[in-house]
Amino acid sequence: MRMAKKMTAFLVALAMTFFCTLPAIADGEEAIYASTDIKITGASALLMEASTGQVLFEKQANEKLPIGTLNKIMTVLLVAEAIDEGKLSLSSQVSASTKASKAKGAVIWLEAGEKMSVEDLLKGVIIGNANDASIALAEAVSGTEEDFVARMNQRAKELGMANTVFKNCTGYDEPEQYSTAYDVALMSRELIKHKNMYGYMTCWMDNLRNGATMLVNANNLVKSYDGIIGVKAGYTEAAKNCISAAAERNGTAYVAVVLGCADKDARFSEAKGLMNVGFANYQVATPPMPEEALKPIKVSGGTKRQIFARAESLSNVVIPKGAADEITGKVILPEEISAPVRENQIIGEVEFYRGDSLLCKTNLLAGETVEEMTFFTAFNILFKNMMDF
Prior knowledge:
By secondary structure, this protein is an alpha+beta fold. It has helices at residues 2-19, 30-33, 71-84, 98-101, 118-126, 131-142, 145-158, 181-191, 198-201, 264-281, 375-388, and strands at residues 44-49, 55-59, 93-95, 115-117, 205-208, 213-216, 228-236, 240-249, 252-261, 282-285, 297-300, 306-307, 309-311, 317-320, 327-332, 336-338, 346-354, 357-366. It has a 5-stranded antiparallel beta sheet with strand order 2-1-9-8-7, sandwiched between helices. The chain has a 4-stranded antiparallel beta sheet with strand order 13-18-17-15, with no helix packed on it.
């Protein structure tokens, strides 16, 4: 029986190698796609810059749709977080349950009681899209798949995935299980923070059980796209062909999601085209702080006559390439503030614009504490000065 499974795995891998190959990207191909007029045949699509979460292109990005095996992005994310938290390690041995061994669809043929490392199970999920490996990992993290799915939904809420409901960790089609292109981008953006997963997500072919079980990645972009770092491609009858792809070049990463493609190759070309739009047309920039925000601010009735403000935070923004000089800052600060003033007290803000478009804003905080001048504080200051003299 095991020999028949091994032969089946080999034939599947061989067939996918011959029939699922995309040509490598030619030099200068980005210029072809350097337009947001790119045709999207999928039901929904989105392009997001990963570090800022800025959406640069969308088509029905908040439409609730089945996402099929893209569920496994959340499965892998929770396993990666469990590893970071020390609950699991890549070398941890997981014993497959009867439930895992009975999984259907794409599997690595786990048998009940069979032990496999977390690393090999991750390979099975990420590269081989294995449902039995997904269930085994879910049970290793949370005890049962049901409890793991509850955590999937909780984590989705934490990430701001407001239009997502998970019913299983594998992506089996179920009624009332859905997500959106935007939500898929959010969880993909979170997953690519875990760089220890890159080696699995970018692997084209691998094997388990000393070569007995072959794995082939359904994401053809791992073979061809410059800078690819993940994430996952998949298919189910309800979801059709879907992909969430991420790539990084020169420190900037983009996530492209395409859902509901009738054609399996269209998802790859459309995701590739969206990422090309990002790399060819946009850049990440830090807005320059206006000089006006750095000037001293008068303090009335205080033990000091002036203080300086500082920015609470300064977020990066995504702008068209070459447009950094077009960013302007509008400082909103009073000419004078009254004591007492507490360090880190909000005393104003700066708004950053490109033309009439608000890019971002940040609070301006008091750089130090200034006490109110009272008779006793004035006397103490006078006494101290006399003693110093």
